[in-house]
Specification:
This protein is an alpha/beta fold. The chain is built from 7 helices and 10 strands.
């Protein structure tokens, strides 16, 4: 089995076409983390950067928010979510480093930045912050993540850095109103950061 390094779009379209979709079903944890930390008001506008299956975006839309979801993989959305798309709930098939959504009150970027090459992290955060009017919520995995798909093995987390490295980087983009390190029993750590403008 060989380590595979495709471009991100090709890689994630291949992964979302397989059993990776079933692995990424931690919707409730993500929804409650975001709502507990940010709690957007009814009618708020939200951008979900790296939306994956679109479950968080759909829940926020059902909470009466206008939601733009962005993902590099054209096939990432679940079928039921695709059928729910409308003018207040849209999908943009683009990289988070270059997408140009309508600026929104809030941005959410969960389990995405660590999937980028290190050279793309600053452009991604810059783009997110340029399109955020109030607060940006980030959740970043700090541990490696390998995935085997057919005869290919992917190292999915390409930017593995310490919490201190991430904090120092985020401080360049605004006031960090919240920071938290989550460590689980499975030896998997995540960093939660909110930047307020």
């Amino acid at each position: 089995m060989s380590f595979q390094k495709d471009d991100l779009k090709t890689q994630y379209e291949e992964l979302w076409g397989g059993e990776y979709r079933e692995r990424k079903r931690d919707f409730n944890g993500r929804y409650f983390r975001f709502m507990g930390a940010v709690n957007p008001e009814i009618g708020a506008t939200i951008i979900d950067w790296g939306c994956g299956q679109g479950q968080l975006g759909k829940a926020l839309f059902y909470d009466n928010c206008n939601v733009q979801m962005i993902d590099i993989a054209s096939n990432s959305l679940d079928e039921g979510i695709k059928r729910s798309l409308c003018s207040e709930f849209i999908f943009i098939n683009e990289s988070i480093t270059t997408a140009q959504p309508i600026p929104a009150h809030y941005s959410v970027c969960m389990d995405v930045l660590e999937h980028l090459e290190p050279k793309d992290v600053v452009p991604a955060i810059s783009n997110i912050m340029e399109h955020t009017l109030r607060e940006a919520y980030f959740l970043i995995a700090l541990d490696s993540d390998r995935w085997i798909h057919g005869k290919k093995e992917y190292d999915l987390h390409l930017t593995l850095k310490s919490p201190e490295w991430w904090f120092k980087l985020f401080e360049k983009f605004g006031y960090i109103s919240h920071r938290c390190l989550w460590e689980s029993r499975e030896n998997y750590s995540m960093l939660e950061v909110i930047i307020r403008l």
